[in-house]
């Protein structure tokens, strides 16, 4: 749903200009220095990027899902690590509190997440629990009016910097499944919360992940999201539903950028006396990539509109994540192929994107998990 087309056009134009004029020229620096330059971080805060999907009453822009997707399509046109910093505040970092938090929790934290004053992270994955999220082992044991957390969370995006964590932990040891899990809000400075060294990743330099270790970490009982034990797995799943649409839009944005890079290169570079773009085998790759990116754009917008209309889009969000993450992998592969030897060289953006996009098929639910979710929902709907 688009509430005010003129206002949205202005926002999308501003972001598109920011991506073109400020972020794209800084991509190589981001990769080299492995950090988002502070001046760009400040500009992102001033533009409201940390609060895109946070409701206006908490100081965000309150974008609908369709509006958020249109913005994410623009942001996807540059290195995904730029998005990772603020995307987490809008997405998996804040949504748990927004969807299931108490009014006090929302008032206490969300306005500062919307401005970027607080950076947030989502702690679900563990060393022995990734796709099988319900088997997580981090425990939270009640002790008076506190809970004591113990366990390790792995590959936590924004982990090294985050001020606020949504942490899924098991409060009911007799329930080994989803029902024993509770979601907590844990502040970064809480004694007993430790950060491991930053991970050395294949791509997405500038977006940092690390282990978050809880050692007798005491949090007040009112840190339970929504105040009720046993709801944490469902909170996490609802958060991921929304996140999957956002990530799908980012995948489409990256694919569109790669199609453009491939097209320009194919027009400029000559082989056999004519531009690459005149060769039919190159044309086939360009056409396939264009078609697939368009298919991705169409499905993400459709699912977003349905979500805004109140439909349960759990299945469709997984369809989008499955298709768009795989699609951008194919597009990036063709982009390298069209660039030939140049595509293997670090000075060309496609080399970096090729590594960056590999993560999309893995995080926020692997492709195989999306297949499981889709098929299970299909079977449930008819039985
Ligand atoms: N929204 C709301 N509730 C949901 C839900 C959703 N999208 N998906 C599941 N639930 C509920 C179920 O309805 C069920 O509730 P009841 O016990 O009341 O019936 C409960 O959660 C458990 O669901 P289910 O039995 O389907 O859980 P499983 O352990 O079988 O696992 C999958 C489900 C595999 C889908 C889940 O573990 C998953 O998504 N894994 C991937 C995790 C992931 O994306 N990790 C990425 C890292 S986080 S960035």
Largest sheet: 4 strands, antiparallel
Q: Supply the number of helical segments.
A: 12
Proportion in helices: 40-55%
Q: Spell out the helices and strands N to C.
A: HHHHHHHEEEEEEEHEEHHHH
The third-level CATH topology of the largest domain is: Butyryl-CoA Dehydrogenase, subunit A, domain 3
Order the strands across the largest sheet as they lie in space.
2-3-7-6
CATH architectural type of the largest domain: Up-down Bundle
Mean residue pLDDT: 96
* Secondary-structure class: alpha+beta
> Terminal Cα separation, in Å?
32 Å
Ions, cofactors, ligands: which are bound? coenzyme a persulfide
Architecture blueprint of SSEs:
Blueprint: H1 5-23, H2 27-33, H3 38-47, H4 65-75, H5 80-90, H6 95-100, H7 103-115, E1 120-123, E2 139-143, E3 146-157, E4 164-170, E5 181-187, E6 193-195, E7 209-220, H8 232-268, E8 270-271, E9 274-275, H9 280-308, H10 314-339, H11 349-356, H12 367-382
Parallel strand pairs: 1-4
Antiparallel strand pairs: 2-3, 3-7, 4-5, 6-7, 8-9
Helix pairs in contact: 1-4, 4-8, 4-9, 8-9, 8-10, 9-10, 10-11, 10-12
The protein binds coenzyme a persulfide.
Residues 92, 122, 124-125, 131-134, 178-179, 233-234, 237-238, 240-241, 314, 363-365, 369, 372-373 line the site of coenzyme a persulfide.
